[in-house]
Amino acid sequence: MDFQTYFNDELEDHATVLAKTRADLMGPFLKTLDIWTNCAANGGKILFFGNGGSAADAQHLSAELVVRFVEDRSPIAAIALNTDTSALTAGANDLGYENVFARQIDALGKPGDVAVGLTTSGTSPNVVEALKMARAKGLATTAFTGKDGGLMPELADTALIVPANSTRRIQEMHITLGHMLCGALEQRLKLI
Fold it and tell me: Please, what is the average pLDDT of the chain?
């Protein structure tokens, strides 16, 4: 394998997805920002969840809000539901893995909160069930996904659907968009 070509091809593929994301996602980005701002400004909490790399992104973005992203500011209430190993393993054992996030949303979520599902395919059963539970409990719902969006457009008030099929490219855009939302949310809250 020619690793110089590989290096250039990977960055070119990333740049192509970045350009498509820029062209397609401003509207959903701004709608997501509005939903998150309304939640944070009115004392709600943002509940993130996902599997694998999406779990890492959920944990990462939650920490950016609770601690800080760029600005020294008051904390923003957020939690990554995939970080509680006892709740995850008990839920998986007793209720089935597809219910591990839905059960936590049922326990912790209330109207005024936002459920944020991260799934590159848009079809992860536990993310789908959690968003259904969030809707049933009156939470706002937002999603990060890719490919054709899967079930996310039906379950989320707004979905950031990265225009790519490659999991790695979708995840690269998810963390970029997530960082952008954290930064924009900090700026928005300064104006309120």
Answer: 97
What tokens were used for 46? 């943002």
pTM over 0.90: yes
Residue 8 has pLDDT above 90, yes or no: yes
Q: What's the rounded Cα separation, in Å, for the pair 65 and 181?
A: 10
How many Å apart are CA 52 and CA 141, to the nearest integer?
20
Distance, in Å, from the CA atom of 103 to the CA atom of 186, rounded to the nearest integer, reads: 30
CB-based contact 69:179 (threshold 8 Å): yes
Strand partners, 115: 47, 141
Query: What mean pLDDT is predicted for residues 74-83?
Result: 98
Strands 46-50 and 140-146, how do they pair?
unpaired
> Look-up: residue for tokens 């993310």?
127
* CB atoms closer than 10 angstroms to residue 49: 30
Q: How many CB atoms lie within 10 A of CB 176?
A: 13
